[in-house]
Amino acid sequence: MVVQELERQHTSRLVVPAPAPIGQPAVVVDGISKRFVSKPLAPWKEPTVVTANADVSFSVARNEIFGILGANGSGKSTLIRMISTLLIPDEGRIEVFGLDVRRDEAEVKKLINRVSVEASFFKKLSPLENLGYALRLYGRTGADVRGETVATLERLGIERSKMDKPLEELSRGMQQKVAIARAFLTSPVLLLLDEPTTGLDPRSKHEVQRFVRELRDEHDATILLCTHDMAEAEELCERMAVLHKGRLVALDTVPGLKARAGAEMGVAEPTLEAVFIHLTGRSLDDEDDEGEAA
Amino acid sequence: MSVNASPSRRVNPVPGAGIGREARASWAFVERNFYLVRRYWHLELAFLVFNVTSAMSVLYIGEAQMQRDAAGAIAAEQRLDLVLYLGIGTVVWAYLRAVFGNVGEMVAWERWEGTIEYTMMAPVSRLTHMLGVSLFSIIYGLARSALLLGVLALFFSVDLSRANLGGAALVLLAGSLSFIGFGIMAATLPLLFPERGEEMTFVISSLLLVVSGVYYPVSVLPDWMEPLATVSPATYVLEGMRATILDGAATLAIGPYLLPILVLGVVTLPLGLAVFGWAERYAKRTGKLKRSG
């Protein structure tokens, strides 16, 4: 307990109070904790408890691109799942545009969409069939929708001849682009991106990043981006939270994080990777030994 | 609190509202499943061949028994049309199993595809979701059973001159309701037990098969098993179907079969939805929604 308290004190001094968002924030995460308990079949054995998130708090301004940076197992995906109503927190509350994700789940679902590292499609169905299904669920039907779908896929570099092929015959990069198109076509006001460009080539990454900006600028969307791609985070995010072992250890703009960590490190202009290592004591390639099981 | 807190920059939620939007969302599940059946046509063909050959094996047992009866001293009017009796059991069970299977395996299937989280996150009520899956399961079950019936008609000649086919269809459709209710309850098992939930749904359908008198009258069951038949909707569906097809019972006379079927439907449908809602919350609390087994 003493060690944990010292660690908490050590990390909490690095959290910079973020400037309060003007007007109603898009997302408020207030004191969120989540633990996963695995009970063994043998009743005399102790259950295994994994702490995925511990007392995490932050808020995201409307129209902001907000990054969550953390190693594998740091609790990023668990946090995204709780915001997207797929997991119920043990403690704390989450609000999306003033709506409580537990109490107002149905309303929150109308405002959000999520792109995860797995493309989450029916493998045998084509991109057009998969998108047609998704768009119907989001209330988008009509003659113009198919044309818009085709145009969006073409803009993402997917040839017309591949739009009717089973998705399993497309490369992972292509599948991920279809997932981005799905999110784009449903025009969410809050887009949750969980490592959306993992496994994509540099050109595809650039296209996806362009789409993310476009979604923010043209559709008035707020973007919450989980990543362990430093360059992407630096390129896209206005502010960034760093998660380590399920705890928030830093929150600031990228220049702000660099300035504070640089001062502590005695380095004038540290890279974001150096900042991350300084904050967490490990590189992004390392997995956190605590945190989510995912 | 309102999502339109800032009028100058209004949040744009999902378009449309009300029954129309929910109906379109429900149709999304029907259309998606049609696409899946079309893409997995080779699996459908394999299952159809399996169904047809299994049904033929059962019906030939009936044929053999009838030939023995004809050679014996049993008078023609006292002989049960065993082929028709078994045929009704086979086709009705194929239909009810298809309805139950489609609804019961919806979670397991989406878990296998990796789409379960996306579906659960979509802005549709669980009732809309279930209605879509159920509607497809009825259409799919009817199509499969019609195909099975068509193939069996090529091999066996049966006398349907006395049959009340309208009454039979009524009994079958009414029976679908409670099988959908059972299916929704079964669908919670893969939510609660990601690694073995799907197998547990097979156990439920197997138990229904044994106690419901699909191939034999319930009266041949041991005394302790007979009460189980009274809580199985398939028992009443099969009895009602046999009464209308074998005995030509009039539609007005099938009340004794329809009543328990409808009572079971009224009980199992809302119960299934309630149980599913509880299981979904449990899965979201424990993180079992994501696990793929």
TrEMBL record, chain B:
**Where is the chain membrane-spanning?**
41-62, 82-100, 130-156, 168-193, 200-218, 257-279
User: Topology versus the membrane, per the UniProt entry?
Assistant: Multi-pass membrane protein
Select a single GO molecular function from the record's annotations and give it: ABC-type transporter activity
Assigned GO CC terms: plasma membrane
Keyword terms of this UniProt record: Cell membrane, Membrane, Transmembrane, Transmembrane helix, Transport
Main location class: membrane
Q: Where in the cell is it found?
A: Cell membrane; Membrane
| Domain of life of the organism encoding this protein | Bacteria
Domain ABC transmembrane type-2 span(s) in chain numbering: 46-279
Which Pfam family is one of those matched by this entry? ABC2_membrane
Protein family: Belongs to the ABC-2 integral membrane protein family.
Protein known as: Transport permease protein
